[in-house]
Amino acid sequence: MKSRSFGKIILYITLIIASLLAIFPFYWMFVMATNPSHLINQTPPVMIPGAELLTNFQNVMATVDFFGAFKNSFIVSVSVTIGTLFLCSLAGFAFAKLDFPWKKFWFGAILVTMMIPPQLGLIPQYFIITELGWLSDLRAVIVPGLINAFGIFWMRQYIKDSIPDALMEAGKIDGCSTFRMYWNIVIPSITPAFATLGIIVFMNVWNDFLWPLVVLQDSASHTLQVALRSLNDSYVNDYGMIMSGTLWATVPLIAVFLLFNRFFINSLTQGAVKG
Protein backbone atom coordinates (compact mmCIF):
# COMPACT_ATOMS: atom_id res chain seq x y z
CA MET A 1 0.00 0.00 0.00
CA LYS A 2 2.81 2.41 0.86
CA SER A 3 4.55 1.62 -2.43
CA ARG A 4 1.33 2.24 -4.37
CA SER A 5 0.72 5.55 -2.58
CA PHE A 6 4.31 6.64 -3.23
CA GLY A 7 3.90 5.79 -6.93
CA LYS A 8 0.73 7.92 -7.12
CA ILE A 9 2.52 10.84 -5.48
CA ILE A 10 5.38 10.62 -7.99
CA LEU A 11 2.84 10.41 -10.83
CA TYR A 12 0.94 13.48 -9.63
CA ILE A 13 4.15 15.47 -9.12
CA THR A 14 5.29 14.55 -12.65
CA LEU A 15 1.93 15.57 -14.12
CA ILE A 16 1.96 18.88 -12.23
CA ILE A 17 5.48 19.70 -13.43
CA ALA A 18 4.61 18.76 -17.02
CA SER A 19 1.44 20.90 -16.85
CA LEU A 20 3.38 23.90 -15.54
CA LEU A 21 5.97 23.52 -18.32
CA ALA A 22 3.18 23.39 -20.91
CA ILE A 23 1.35 26.40 -19.49
CA PHE A 24 4.42 28.58 -18.95
CA PRO A 25 4.80 29.75 -22.59
CA PHE A 26 1.20 31.02 -22.54
CA TYR A 27 1.78 32.72 -19.20
CA TRP A 28 4.98 34.32 -20.49
CA MET A 29 3.15 35.53 -23.61
CA PHE A 30 0.50 37.11 -21.36
CA VAL A 31 3.18 38.76 -19.21
CA MET A 32 4.87 40.22 -22.29
CA ALA A 33 1.52 41.42 -23.65
CA THR A 34 0.82 43.36 -20.44
CA ASN A 35 4.19 45.07 -20.07
CA PRO A 36 6.15 47.71 -22.03
CA SER A 37 9.19 46.60 -24.01
CA HIS A 38 11.76 48.17 -21.68
CA LEU A 39 10.59 45.93 -18.82
CA ILE A 40 10.64 42.86 -21.05
CA ASN A 41 14.19 43.61 -22.24
CA GLN A 42 15.63 44.25 -18.79
CA THR A 43 17.76 41.67 -16.98
CA PRO A 44 16.21 39.79 -15.28
CA PRO A 45 12.95 40.28 -17.21
CA VAL A 46 9.73 41.05 -15.40
CA MET A 47 7.79 37.89 -14.49
CA ILE A 48 4.47 39.31 -13.33
CA PRO A 49 1.64 40.77 -15.47
CA GLY A 50 1.59 44.52 -15.92
CA ALA A 51 -1.08 47.08 -16.71
CA GLU A 52 -0.29 47.77 -20.39
CA LEU A 53 -2.52 45.15 -22.04
CA LEU A 54 -5.04 47.70 -23.33
CA THR A 55 -2.32 50.14 -24.42
CA ASN A 56 -0.40 47.46 -26.30
CA PHE A 57 -3.57 46.28 -28.04
CA GLN A 58 -4.40 49.85 -29.03
CA ASN A 59 -0.95 50.04 -30.61
CA VAL A 60 -1.74 46.82 -32.51
CA MET A 61 -4.97 48.28 -33.88
CA ALA A 62 -3.16 51.49 -34.84
CA THR A 63 -0.59 49.47 -36.82
CA VAL A 64 -2.75 46.85 -38.56
CA ASP A 65 -6.43 46.25 -39.26
CA PHE A 66 -6.68 43.64 -36.53
CA PHE A 67 -10.43 43.05 -36.59
CA GLY A 68 -10.57 43.01 -40.39
CA ALA A 69 -7.82 40.37 -40.48
CA PHE A 70 -9.56 38.52 -37.65
CA LYS A 71 -12.77 38.39 -39.68
CA ASN A 72 -10.90 37.10 -42.74
CA SER A 73 -9.19 34.37 -40.69
CA PHE A 74 -12.50 33.37 -39.13
CA ILE A 75 -14.24 33.13 -42.52
CA VAL A 76 -11.40 31.11 -44.03
CA SER A 77 -10.98 28.78 -41.03
CA VAL A 78 -14.68 28.03 -40.60
CA SER A 79 -15.25 27.55 -44.35
CA VAL A 80 -12.27 25.22 -44.76
CA THR A 81 -13.16 23.25 -41.62
CA ILE A 82 -16.78 22.68 -42.65
CA GLY A 83 -15.79 21.82 -46.21
CA THR A 84 -13.05 19.45 -45.08
CA LEU A 85 -15.32 17.63 -42.64
CA PHE A 86 -17.99 17.09 -45.29
CA LEU A 87 -15.78 16.20 -48.26
CA CYS A 88 -13.25 14.09 -46.35
CA SER A 89 -15.96 12.15 -44.52
CA LEU A 90 -17.76 11.56 -47.82
CA ALA A 91 -14.56 10.30 -49.45
CA GLY A 92 -13.66 8.28 -46.35
CA PHE A 93 -17.09 6.63 -46.44
CA ALA A 94 -16.60 5.72 -50.10
CA PHE A 95 -13.18 4.17 -49.49
CA ALA A 96 -14.35 2.36 -46.35
CA LYS A 97 -17.74 0.95 -47.35
CA LEU A 98 -18.21 1.15 -51.11
CA ASP A 99 -16.74 -1.00 -53.87
CA PHE A 100 -15.54 0.65 -57.07
CA PRO A 101 -12.77 -0.06 -59.61
CA TRP A 102 -9.19 0.58 -58.50
CA LYS A 103 -10.22 1.55 -55.00
CA LYS A 104 -6.97 0.44 -53.39
CA PHE A 105 -4.92 2.17 -56.07
CA TRP A 106 -6.66 5.52 -55.60
CA PHE A 107 -6.44 5.28 -51.82
CA GLY A 108 -2.73 4.49 -52.09
CA ALA A 109 -2.25 7.45 -54.42
CA ILE A 110 -3.90 9.71 -51.83
CA LEU A 111 -1.58 8.38 -49.13
CA VAL A 112 1.45 9.06 -51.33
CA THR A 113 0.49 12.75 -51.53
CA MET A 114 0.92 12.95 -47.75
CA MET A 115 4.66 12.37 -48.28
CA ILE A 116 5.04 15.35 -50.64
CA PRO A 117 6.00 18.63 -48.94
CA PRO A 118 3.25 21.22 -49.52
CA GLN A 119 5.88 23.80 -50.55
CA LEU A 120 6.43 21.85 -53.79
CA GLY A 121 2.91 22.67 -54.90
CA LEU A 122 3.23 26.36 -54.17
CA ILE A 123 4.18 27.48 -57.69
CA PRO A 124 1.64 25.42 -59.70
CA GLN A 125 -1.11 26.37 -57.27
CA TYR A 126 -0.14 30.02 -57.61
CA PHE A 127 -0.41 29.81 -61.41
CA ILE A 128 -3.85 28.18 -61.13
CA ILE A 129 -5.06 30.88 -58.73
CA THR A 130 -3.70 33.57 -61.05
CA GLU A 131 -5.49 32.09 -64.07
CA LEU A 132 -8.74 31.97 -62.09
CA GLY A 133 -8.33 35.62 -61.11
CA TRP A 134 -8.48 34.85 -57.39
CA LEU A 135 -5.41 36.77 -56.20
CA SER A 136 -6.24 38.79 -53.07
CA ASP A 137 -9.50 36.88 -52.84
CA LEU A 138 -10.34 34.62 -49.89
CA ARG A 139 -11.35 31.89 -52.35
CA ALA A 140 -7.64 31.47 -53.11
CA VAL A 141 -7.15 30.23 -49.54
CA ILE A 142 -10.48 28.47 -49.00
CA VAL A 143 -10.85 26.32 -52.13
CA PRO A 144 -7.38 24.61 -52.12
CA GLY A 145 -7.83 23.67 -48.47
CA LEU A 146 -11.29 22.12 -48.70
CA ILE A 147 -9.94 18.56 -48.83
CA ASN A 148 -6.72 16.94 -47.71
CA ALA A 149 -5.19 13.49 -47.74
CA PHE A 150 -4.92 13.17 -43.97
CA GLY A 151 -8.61 13.94 -43.54
CA ILE A 152 -9.58 11.23 -46.03
CA PHE A 153 -7.25 8.73 -44.37
CA TRP A 154 -8.51 9.61 -40.89
CA MET A 155 -12.18 9.34 -41.85
CA ARG A 156 -11.69 6.14 -43.83
CA GLN A 157 -9.99 4.40 -40.91
CA TYR A 158 -12.56 5.60 -38.39
CA ILE A 159 -15.58 4.69 -40.51
CA LYS A 160 -14.14 1.30 -41.40
CA ASP A 161 -13.64 0.40 -37.74
CA SER A 162 -16.74 2.01 -36.19
CA ILE A 163 -19.51 1.28 -38.72
CA PRO A 164 -20.41 -2.44 -38.91
CA ASP A 165 -21.10 -3.84 -42.35
CA ALA A 166 -24.31 -5.34 -40.95
CA LEU A 167 -25.60 -1.83 -40.30
CA MET A 168 -24.93 -0.85 -43.90
CA GLU A 169 -26.71 -3.97 -45.15
CA ALA A 170 -29.69 -3.16 -42.94
CA GLY A 171 -29.82 0.30 -44.49
CA LYS A 172 -29.84 -1.18 -47.98
CA ILE A 173 -32.65 -3.57 -47.05
CA ASP A 174 -34.68 -0.61 -45.75
CA GLY A 175 -34.26 1.08 -49.13
CA CYS A 176 -31.72 3.73 -48.18
CA SER A 177 -29.74 5.30 -50.99
CA THR A 178 -25.96 5.51 -50.68
CA PHE A 179 -26.01 9.18 -49.70
CA ARG A 180 -28.82 8.63 -47.20
CA MET A 181 -26.82 5.87 -45.52
CA TYR A 182 -23.92 8.30 -45.29
CA TRP A 183 -26.13 11.09 -43.93
CA ASN A 184 -28.37 9.13 -41.55
CA ILE A 185 -26.12 6.26 -40.46
CA VAL A 186 -22.50 7.28 -40.83
CA ILE A 187 -22.54 10.92 -39.72
CA PRO A 188 -24.29 10.32 -36.34
CA SER A 189 -21.72 7.62 -35.58
CA ILE A 190 -18.54 9.57 -36.33
CA THR A 191 -18.97 12.73 -34.24
CA PRO A 192 -15.73 12.00 -32.31
CA ALA A 193 -13.87 11.83 -35.63
CA PHE A 194 -15.53 15.08 -36.72
CA ALA A 195 -14.48 16.78 -33.48
CA THR A 196 -10.88 15.60 -33.71
CA LEU A 197 -10.43 16.44 -37.38
CA GLY A 198 -12.24 19.76 -36.88
CA ILE A 199 -9.77 20.80 -34.17
CA ILE A 200 -6.77 19.86 -36.32
CA VAL A 201 -8.03 21.56 -39.48
CA PHE A 202 -9.20 24.74 -37.77
CA MET A 203 -5.91 25.21 -35.96
CA ASN A 204 -3.82 24.50 -39.05
CA VAL A 205 -5.82 26.92 -41.21
CA TRP A 206 -5.89 29.61 -38.53
CA ASN A 207 -2.10 29.39 -38.10
CA ASP A 208 -1.31 29.10 -41.82
CA PHE A 209 1.07 31.83 -42.97
CA LEU A 210 2.95 30.92 -46.16
CA TRP A 211 0.10 30.34 -48.62
CA PRO A 212 -2.03 33.35 -47.48
CA LEU A 213 1.12 35.49 -47.67
CA VAL A 214 1.63 34.48 -51.32
CA VAL A 215 -1.92 34.87 -52.66
CA LEU A 216 -3.47 37.54 -50.42
CA GLN A 217 -1.52 40.53 -51.66
CA ASP A 218 -4.09 43.21 -50.85
CA SER A 219 -3.92 44.32 -47.20
CA ALA A 220 -7.74 44.29 -46.99
CA SER A 221 -7.74 40.52 -47.63
CA HIS A 222 -4.95 39.64 -45.20
CA THR A 223 -5.58 36.91 -42.66
CA LEU A 224 -4.57 37.46 -39.06
CA GLN A 225 -1.20 35.70 -39.27
CA VAL A 226 -0.18 37.75 -42.31
CA ALA A 227 -1.36 40.98 -40.69
CA LEU A 228 0.59 40.26 -37.49
CA ARG A 229 3.76 40.03 -39.55
CA SER A 230 3.48 43.81 -40.06
CA LEU A 231 4.05 44.32 -36.33
CA ASN A 232 7.72 43.42 -36.78
CA ASP A 233 9.76 46.51 -37.56
CA SER A 234 13.15 46.36 -39.29
CA TYR A 235 14.85 48.45 -36.63
CA VAL A 236 12.75 48.51 -33.45
CA ASN A 237 10.53 45.72 -32.18
CA ASP A 238 7.83 46.53 -29.64
CA TYR A 239 7.57 43.12 -28.02
CA GLY A 240 4.66 44.16 -25.83
CA MET A 241 2.66 45.13 -28.90
CA ILE A 242 3.69 41.98 -30.81
CA MET A 243 2.78 39.69 -27.94
CA SER A 244 -0.52 41.50 -27.41
CA GLY A 245 -1.52 40.81 -31.01
CA THR A 246 -0.34 37.21 -30.72
CA LEU A 247 -2.24 36.75 -27.46
CA TRP A 248 -5.57 37.87 -28.91
CA ALA A 249 -4.93 35.80 -32.03
CA THR A 250 -4.49 32.72 -29.81
CA VAL A 251 -7.73 33.14 -27.86
CA PRO A 252 -10.00 31.67 -30.60
CA LEU A 253 -7.76 28.60 -30.86
CA ILE A 254 -8.02 27.95 -27.14
CA ALA A 255 -11.79 28.48 -27.20
CA VAL A 256 -12.29 26.13 -30.17
CA PHE A 257 -10.06 23.48 -28.62
CA LEU A 258 -11.89 23.55 -25.29
CA LEU A 259 -15.30 23.49 -26.97
CA PHE A 260 -14.59 20.63 -29.38
CA ASN A 261 -12.49 18.70 -26.88
CA ARG A 262 -15.42 18.54 -24.46
CA PHE A 263 -17.75 17.65 -27.32
CA PHE A 264 -15.34 14.89 -28.34
CA ILE A 265 -15.32 13.39 -24.85
CA ASN A 266 -19.12 13.52 -24.59
CA SER A 267 -19.42 11.85 -28.00
CA LEU A 268 -17.36 8.82 -27.07
CA THR A 269 -20.40 7.14 -25.53
CA GLN A 270 -22.60 7.72 -28.59
CA GLY A 271 -22.97 5.42 -31.60
CA ALA A 272 -25.36 3.84 -33.99
CA VAL A 273 -24.98 0.33 -32.56
CA LYS A 274 -26.00 -0.26 -28.99
CA GLY A 275 -25.65 -3.63 -27.46
Describe the model.
The structure is a single chain. The protein has 275 residues and is mostly helical. The protein has a domain at 64-230: MetI-like (MetI-like fold), CATH 1.10.3720.10. It is built from 14 helices and no strands. Helix 4 runs antiparallel to helix 11 and helix 5 crosses helix 8. The protein starts with a helix and ends in an 8-residue tail after the last helix.
Helix-strand sequence: HHHHHHHHHHHHHH
Stretches where pLDDT is under 50 for at least 5 consecutive residues are 270-275
**Quick one: CATH class of the domain at 64-230?**
Mainly Alpha
**Rough outline:** globular
Overall mean pLDDT stands at 87
CATH architecture of the domain at 64-230: Orthogonal Bundle
Summed up, the helix count is: 14
Structural class: mainly alpha
CATH superfamily of the domain at 64-230: MetI-like
Largest sheet: none
What portion of residues belong to β-strands?
under 5%
CATH topology of the domain at 64-230: MetI-like fold
Number of strands: 0
Subcellular location: Cell membrane
Keywords: Cell membrane, Membrane, Transmembrane, Transmembrane helix, Transport
Membrane topology: Multi-pass membrane protein
Domain ABC transmembrane type-1: 70-260
